[in-house]
Amino acid sequence: MALMDKKITPLEVKVTRTEPYIVCPAQPTPREQKMLSDIDDQEGLRFQMPAIMFYKADPLMNEKDPVKVVKDALAKALVFYYPFAGRLVEGPNRKLIVDCTGEGVPFIEAEANVSLEDFGSEIHPPFPLEDLLSDIPGTDQMIGTPLLILQVTRLTCGGFIVALRANHAITDGTGIMKLMNAVGEMGRGFTAPSTLPVWERERLIAREPPRVTFHHHEYDQHDSDNDQANGHTELVQQSFLFGPTQLAALRSHVPPHIKQYSTFDLLSASLWQCRTKALGLEPNDEVRLLFAVNARNKFDPPLAKGFYGNACAFPAVCAKVGDICDNKIGYVLELIRKTKEEIDEVYMRSVTDLMATKDRPHFTVYQTYVVSDLRHLGFADADFGWGKPIFGGPASNGSVPDASFFMSYKNKDGQSMIMVPISLPPPAMKVFVAELQGMLQL
């Protein structure tokens, strides 16, 4: 078929690793406490966020050990990003605060019995994360545990893998890649990051008195909010690739009068429609599309370029199943456009006030499809001296098992594509693939 779907082939990896040791900032750092914002410490972001990057061998770097380069560079970068070397404490009303203790970051050195080729000609999720990122006992909690963990795994081919886990309450995907790009710069001999980090969390604190001015459907609470994919607990994942041919096929379904939409909008609308059909829900059931919007530039003035905290809105498009399934894709695109237009500084202020007044509710996940565009976050840019990774992106779906992340990808022919992992119950996956195939027939 025109769409390339990649089924999961488990790879057995034997990894030998050291006990974790602590990497501290290379120089003394301020001993202080820094309050997180009301966007940072919402319930839906209180989880550990894993990411992974794969690197080829470089003959020019044969005399260099990637483990030592990354470890030393991390110590230098932590001088600037010193809150990552601290620990979270909880203040009154569950308010999260970074205690900048300088305790450092656990670091694991590892060797694997595989090469990059063993991962296949086109590397994609899911990955054997239990092998590539050590699960250090007692570090899963939010309070009093390391805010960042790194493992560097050498491969038999001379390449290596950098896997990390960051506490999402202190940073988002954009923020963690600012840190990792700073580590890369230090590894290449920089004396300071090209973009200096900025805290600035005070700009995302609830107003006094709080004023919730929007109906934030993304935080509606349901009794069944722990259910995924319409109540199914068994999910299978397939990764789908979209290149120019597939995107052109999807655009052919858009009415000519609809001109203002992005590639992200088009993919989100198409996947949501196919997914909703595949789940076989009742026509009058309500479903949601929840997507991340980077709001850094929605403020006046915009948040600083070096801001590395959470700064995303997660607006929800709400609709009846019958309306999503029975209408053309243009209908869904219009719903997405109208929702995106609401996101501005006033909306973000309303979210912060909601967090302060409603005890930081979790996102609604009941009959909700969560999508996030990670193509521009910098996962593919972190260069420690061996060049940019051949793959960089999230290593799992975080706190929502059936979420979809859109990632930049080059196939074995060097063609730039968008990779989207999809997770669904096995029977629904078959219907989803058939529905998507139908949309891709030019």
Q: Would you mind describing this structure in some detail?
A:
With 442 residues, the protein is an alpha+beta fold. It is 24% helix and 22% strand. It is built from nine helices and 19 strands. The protein has helices at residues 66-80, 129-132, 173-187, 244-251, 263-279, 321-326, 329-341, 345-357, 426-439, and strands at residues 4-6, 15-17, 21-23, 33-35, 48-55, 87-90, 96-99, 105-112, 148-154, 160-167, 236-242, 286-291, 293-294, 312-313, 316-320, 368-373, 391-394, 404-410, 416-424. Strand 6 (87-90) and strand 7 (96-99) form a beta hairpin. Helix 1 crosses helix 3 (173-187), helix 5 packs across helix 7 (329-341) and helix 5 (263-279) packs across helix 9.
- CA-based shape: globular
Strand order of the largest sheet: 1-11-19-18-16-12-15
Instruction: State Rg.
Output: 22 Å
N-to-C SSE string, H for helix and E for strand? EEEEEHEEEHEEHEHHEEEEHHHEEEEH
How many H/I helices? 9
